[in-house]
Amino acid sequence: MVDDIFPHWRLPAYFQSCLNCPKYCDSNKRKFKSVANSPSGIAMLLDWATKQSILSTELHVVMEATGIYHEQAAITLHDAGVTVSIINPAHIKNFARGLGVQTKTDGVDSLILARYAALLKPRRWMPPPPEARILQGLLARREAIQQDLQREKNRQEKSVVANESTLIQQSIADSIAFLIEQLKKIQTQIDDHINGNPLLKHDLALLQSIPAIGEKSSTQLLAVMHLHTFNSAEQLSAYLGLVPIERQSGASLMGVPNYPKQDLQHIRAILYMAAVVATRYNPHVKALYERLLARGKTKMSALGAAMRKLVHLCFGVLKTQQKYQPSYQNA
């Protein structure tokens, strides 16, 4: 198994016996290999595994998701015929806690990943198609420019209130003009990329056939659903952090359900605004929202359900490859 603490990668030589022997935890024969997180480093890792009499097709590499830093290694290993699984770091942390492991070192982390793979057998990761990765990169760049633009606008407002010098105000104005131009440019690139790919263009049209799903929400969901494989609408909702976590045990613990905190707040913010619109103009979401309010649910709780409903509708149109049908009866 590979543990992906950047910038090194470690692979214990005992992983094959770990997968096949229930008593692997008792094994004291462990070897570790550290290589650079680069194509040459991954090639060195594969060569080292071959010297241990292990073929690439026999390898099951398990790594934690580390932003963008795991992607190069994951793709390189996959192209070499290795089975790759990418795990949420929080899941590994909770798994180690469940085993009673509190020590955190490189060797222990690698062992925990190996145990996780042997016991849970995580599914194989498949690299997303190039067009989806390009779209994701363009959307991330647009988000960064929008944030920079908002920060400059805030500075402009403060400079006016503070009666800053003309030079400072002009500098901020120039920066805002530049960012607006960059935002227009990146939006054109996003549109051209989608229009130049028939599958992306077709799926975008399907998503935008849903009332309340506009340009921002459709492109964000398009990227997510093309980057990852979801077997159900519930999986997509859970990935986006829209499934509330309940805390209840007997009569002593009656916690209010809350939503998991993940790194997709910007998508959830867009979906929130879409849900607000959907409660008025989308027949399915409107019916659900009004039904929940009639049951005594709070508006925020009902809006959370509306967000999930929108995501389910988005999953449905791409799954069936049919446009949204207002007359469709819910099961």
TrEMBL record:
Domain of life the protein comes from: Bacteria
Domain Transposase IS116/IS110/IS902 C-terminal: 205-290
Short name of any one Pfam family annotated for the protein: DEDD_Tnp_IS110
Domain Transposase IS110-like N-terminal, residue spans: 33-157
InterPro entries: Transp_IS110-like_N, Transpos_IS110, Transposase_20
Protein's recorded name: IS110 family transposase
